Design the sequence.
């Protein structure tokens, strides 16, 4: 088991290196950081000097090697735009993104799993059909449109919820949380719904398809024949078998939720890492963009690893195979 | 304060008596698209930073609501004999926010800091050879040549406290890593930086010890950057913020028709224009004309100018909020040439005749470079220009891109024609000549991407910078404006509008440089 985890961690280093390399090689197409860092009146001499000082004239591989070496030493460097240390910048934005992603995921699970089971058990019912169609519409509208619609409905027309930002936050050590105030929760509702809607649909449809398939398998038929109560068949035997692939997909999707919260964060001016990334693109803040992408790659790797471990915990067959 | 000691009396007296006094002090929340990237006034010479910090820091000279220069930390200034420079008489009794006294040492320290290699504002001091401390409250700025515009050109040169900067290791502007002045501020201005959360929220409170009389009634001002225009609009309409700038032109009607909100639409000092590749031998993005550059012929450039119907662009794309422009700076600014006030007339027939005369009766095709997130509706303007040029047989292949890569492309000469906006930082006609009309070299003509070159304009720039007599100076500026118009060096299109939106209860002053000054805000 320890060997397995170690092996995965070593692999993850290579994944992150590859991501850093790809990101780095794409950045020269993003634009010129110097023209974003200086004013219009700055002379070309001063621009050239700054470019030299920041090492932007060095060959690509020299720049990449320097970036990698600093990262390995734990030095994330400084933002071109604000000159803040990047590690600190990302750390201060991390709680906002994690809280948003987690709440979005919880919404999608709490609503998605029961809805999936319900639509699987009553596939032709009117309610099931309308749920399926309704969520399909939700998925086909782009996230930013949903976000804007929600803002204008609940924020502007009804005036129930805030339109932007995190609202009241509480500082716990370095972690700034919006989960401990009503104001914070009010601010969290709309962005979490927006971000969670796609997950919700995915979870629901996945649970539904799996459940319908499991209900047709031999051991369920046998249980029915044996006269096991319907309740037990559905929620104990069928549902637990349904959950294995669902957990994999949801786990992997969590990485996606974190990475793709960019759009939601921008629509709601939610001060997370995604918003920071967008601002960094606008200002060609190459160091911040690079570190952000490497950190996101790290998230994916860790989540993958956790999913693998969870798999072993849930599926007894995997444990047996390993002990053999 | 009156409102603290006599609240009951104030209530009894009611509002009629007191309506002229700022008694209903308020928290004021405002938003814009870009967060100032630093609180250091010398680190980045960008409008979001300078505009914001003008509320916290002050210069020797400041600008009033109409952009007129007025005394700030200097009470008066006069030119030294023989054009040797300028003497500034400093205001006595001014203190920084931390209580330290302001004097000549702070000015000299700030000058050295702002003129250092790590500073992004050092171009303001290109002509300064030395700064001399005459006494505690008198400072001489010596210049290499007479510089009549100097006081106005340093209106955004902010003064830091020497003691504070040295005690906190902020002697120089942060270049690589941040320093104390990146997130903290200690100015003399009307507002004190109370808290700073970069990219999220910045709070200011009034400076109770400010030397000038406060015209505002704000007790706390909270700034939030909101990048997405639709979110910003929603935040205003839901009442969560009191003021936002800018809002998209297409949202103006929605705000105006709603109860309790208003829009303030004026003109910014930015002129939008088309530029040509004057030093390009051939077209780069033409489908058929690969051996020549038709734009080298002034008749073709004039044809372009006459083919574009600026009034229609203004009416349709800018919703009538812009104003047609004839020169590289908006009408009414210092040094604007009244003599050359007229644009080339809109006349497609004349344009076609000019093309035929120049040897292109069938027209030609070329590449028009355009930013799509820099100016108001910039890409739409380029498309409109392309369709107007199509009517005289010239095909513009529009290539629109985000501004972050745009200047790079222009510097690499990847254009046949391009769209450019220019706002003269000194609010004087000399500024665009220096940056857009002078033959490009390392320090001059740095935004003259097309390499336009006129020996006469190059020759006139220095005398224009040094001439003290206004009439003689205007004569030279008129000559330059005439040359630029005769050569059709650029095709000025229009002056860009400035759109601010706010609650009805808020009163602000809209300065044409788009600076937002809290000291003129009243909340009723």
Sequence:
């Amino acid at each position: 088991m320890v060997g397995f985890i170690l092996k995965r961690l070593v692999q993850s280093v290579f994944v992150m290196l590859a991501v850093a390399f790809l990101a780095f090689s794409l950045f020269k197409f993003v634009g010129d950081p110097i023209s974003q860092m200086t004013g219009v009146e700055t002379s070309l001499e001063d621009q050239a000097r700054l470019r030299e000082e920041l090492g932007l004239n060095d060959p690509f591989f020299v720049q990449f090697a320097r970036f990698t070496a600093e990262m390995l030493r734990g030095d994330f460097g400084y933002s071109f735009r604000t000159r803040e240390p990047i590690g600190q910048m990302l750390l201060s934005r991390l709680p906002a993104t994690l809280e948003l992603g987690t709440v979005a995921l919880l919404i999608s699970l709490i609503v998605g799993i029961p809805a999936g089971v319900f639509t699987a058990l009553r596939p032709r019912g009117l309610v099931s059909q309308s749920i399926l169609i309704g969520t399909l519409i939700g998925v086909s509208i782009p996230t930013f449109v949903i976000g804007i619609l929600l803002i204008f409905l609940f924020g502007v027309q009804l005036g129930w919820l805030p339109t932007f930002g995190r609202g009241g936050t509480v500082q716990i050590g370095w972690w700034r949380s919006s989960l401990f105030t009503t104001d914070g929760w009010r601010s969290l509702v709309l962005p979490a719904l927006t971000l969670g809607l796609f997950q919700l649909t995915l979870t629901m449809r996945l649970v539904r398809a799996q459940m319908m398939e499991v209900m047709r398998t031999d051991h369920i038929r046998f249980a029915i024949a044996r006269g096991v109560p319907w309740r037990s068949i559905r929620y104990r035997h069928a549902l637990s078998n349904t959950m294995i692939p669902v957990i994999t997909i949801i786990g992997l999707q969590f990485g996606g939720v974190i990475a793709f919260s960019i759009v939601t964060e921008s629509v709601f001016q939610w001060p997370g890492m995604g918003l920071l990334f967008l601002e960094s693109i606008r200002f060609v803040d190459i160091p911040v963009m690079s570190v952000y992408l490497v950190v996101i790659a790290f998230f994916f790797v860790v989540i993958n690893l956790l999913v693998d471990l969870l798999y072993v915990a849930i599926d007894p067959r995997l444990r047996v195979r390993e002990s053999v | 304060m009156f409102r603290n000691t006599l609240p009951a009396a104030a209530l009894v007296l009611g509002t009629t008596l007191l309506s002229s006094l700022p008694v209903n002090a308020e928290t004021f929340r405002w938003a814009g698209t870009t967060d100032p990237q630093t609180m250091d006034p010398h680190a980045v010479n960008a409008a979001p930073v300078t505009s914001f910090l003008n509320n916290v820091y002050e210069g020797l000279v400041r600008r009033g609501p109409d952009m007129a220069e007025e005394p700030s930390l200097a009470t008066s200034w006069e030119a030294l004999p023989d054009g040797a420079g300028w003497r500034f008489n400093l205001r006595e009794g001014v203190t920084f926010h931390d209580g330290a006294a302001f004097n000549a040492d702070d000015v000299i320290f700030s000058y050295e800091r702002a003129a250092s290699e790590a500073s992004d504002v050092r171009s303001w001091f290109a002509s300064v050879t030395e700064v001399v401390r005459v006494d505690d409250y008198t400072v001489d700025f010596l210049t290499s040549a007479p510089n009549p515009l100097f006081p106005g050109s340093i209106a955004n040169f902010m003064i830091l406290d020497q003691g504070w900067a040295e005690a906190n290791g902020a002697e120089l502007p942060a270049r690589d890593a941040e320093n104390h002045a990146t997130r903290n501020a200690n100015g003399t201005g009307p507002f004190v930086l109370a808290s700073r959360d970069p990219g999220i929220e910045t709070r200011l409170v009034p400076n109770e010890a400010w030397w000038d009389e406060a015209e505002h009634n704000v007790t706390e001002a909270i700034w939030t950057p909101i990048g997405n225009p639709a979110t910003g609009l929603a935040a205003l309409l839901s009442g969560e913020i009191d003021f936002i700038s800018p809002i998209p032109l297409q949202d103006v009607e929605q705000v105006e028709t709603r109860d309790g909100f208003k829009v303030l639409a004026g003109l910014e000092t930015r002129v939008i224009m088309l530029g040509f590749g004057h030093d390009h031998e051939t077209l780069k993005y033409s489908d058929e004309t690969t051996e020549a550059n038709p734009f080298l012929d002034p008749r073709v450039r004039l044809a372009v100018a006459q083919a574009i119907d600026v009034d229609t662009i203004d009416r349709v794309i800018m919703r009538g909020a812009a104003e047609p422009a004839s020169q590289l700076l908006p009408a009414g600014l210092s040094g604007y040439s009244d003599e050359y006030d007229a644009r080339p007339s809109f006349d497609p027939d004349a344009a076609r005749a000019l093309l035929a005369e120049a040897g292109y009766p069938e027209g030609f095709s070329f590449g028009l470079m355009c930013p799509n997130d820099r100016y108001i509706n910039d890409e739409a303007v380029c498309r409109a220009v392309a369709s107007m040029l199509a009517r005289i047989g010239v095909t513009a292949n529009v290539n629109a891109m985000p501004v972050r890569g745009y200047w790079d492309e222009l510097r690499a000469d990847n254009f046949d024609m391009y769209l450019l906006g220019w706002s003269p930082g000194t609010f004087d006609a000399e500024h665009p000549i220096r940056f857009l009309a002078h033959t490009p070299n390392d320090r001059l003509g740095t935004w003259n991407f097309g390499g336009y070159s006129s020996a006469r304009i190059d020759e006139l720039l220095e005398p224009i910078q040094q001439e003290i007599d206004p009439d003689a100076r205007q004569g030279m500026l008129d000559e330059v404006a005439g040359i630029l118009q005769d050569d059709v060096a650029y095709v000025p299109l229009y002056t860009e509008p400035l759109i601010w939106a706010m609650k009805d209860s808020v009163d602000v002053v809209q300065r044409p440089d788009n600076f937002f000054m809290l000291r003129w805000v009243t909340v009723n």
The radius of gyration of chain B is 25 Å. The CA atoms of residues 51 and 83 of chain B lie 31 Å apart. DSSP finds 17 helices and 19 strands in chain B. Chain B touches chain A through 48 residues (CB under 8 Å).
